[in-house]
Amino acid sequence: MPVQSASTACRPAQCRPRIALLSNPRSTGNLAQLSRIRAYCAEHPDIFHYEVEHVDQIGNALRSIARVRPKMLVINGGDGTVQATLTEMHNGGHFGDVPPPMAVLPSGKTNLIALDLGVHGDPIIALERLVELAQGHLEDHLVARELIALRKDGSERPVIGMFLGGAGLADTMLYCRDKIYPLGLPNAVSHGLTAIALLFRIMSGIRASFLPPKARAVRVSTGSAGSLTGRFTLLIVTTLEKLLFSGQTGGEGRGRLKLVAIEERPSSVLRVLLLGMTGGYKGRKMRGIHFEEADEISIEGDSSNVILDGEMFSTEVGKPIRLKTAQPLSFVRLAA
Question: If 0-12 CB within 10 Å is exposed, 13-18 middle and 19+ buried, where does residue 205 land?
């Protein structure tokens, strides 16, 4: 059953917590940190703490949280928990036209969304800072973030997220999840080993079960900007300012969705590594490296994977996955 704690002893009419904290105990970081989070919330009655055992319970959680009208909604979970919360907020309308600003604690494996908002390190320290901010005016710390709405097979209900990895990147993420994470190594070591295995496979041309698989061919359309067809080691669509391994994105076209596609060939990958060491990507034209910005993107292929903030989808020929921008939300940013 979901668990409510701390300020839940107060009725909504009598107690107005400044912060609502939504926790997923199954997120990787929470396996070690949740007891500290619970203890902290028990000492701070201005925090309404709601725990879910499964993402399917997030809708009920948000209905309860909406009744206490918090000043800030903090998500204590990984990118998948954030995505499920964003999807429910977009489709459920629990907060009406004025949802509270959101913040994210670094409690998952990758924490891309938390990092984009300047939140890293100890989640308790981050929570303490958010509690401090909630006692005053938040305006100077709020940033608007565009969201990605993913639809497949004409679905009426979109899935909402902020970072999509496709083609070879999705396969490599699955390889890391299925083959490397079970080794029990620290996240940074796991990600490093995955990167080494991927580079070895691309540079050597060797294909083996202990290496990430070869990317499958996909077709990526960006509206009036045209389309890309091929095998891509890396395919990213994001609204985040910071990517997994670089600084700012930039590209051709005008749009709110940022697309980066790196063709699966040694020269393209080496060029990307060189650029990463010399100041990042500037949106310049380079053979095998594509940067686009669009308001609508479609991805089509034969059983090629894409992952939107932890949730996997598979492409089909004739049934493209369509990406558009969704209504932006306000987030609390701790650092520039």
Answer: exposed
User: CATH code for 161-326?
Assistant: 2.60.200.40
Give the pair of three-digit tokens for residue 211: 């290496």
As its CATH architecture, domain 3-136 has: 3-Layer(aba) Sandwich (3.40)
| Joined tokens for residue 170 | 């999705």
> 30-42 and 123-134 helices cross at what angle (nearest 10)?
30
Radius of gyration (Cα) for the chain, nearest Å? 20
Query: Amino acid identity of 97?
Result: D
**Which residue matches tokens 């939140």?**
119
Look up the pTM and report it.
Answer: 0.82
CA separation for the pair 336, 333 (Å, rounded): 7
Interval 270-295: pLDDT, tens: 888 877 666 555 555 678 888 888 88
Check if the beta carbon of residue 6 is closer than 8 Å to that of residue 48: yes
Q: Where are the domains of the chain?
A: 3-136, 161-326
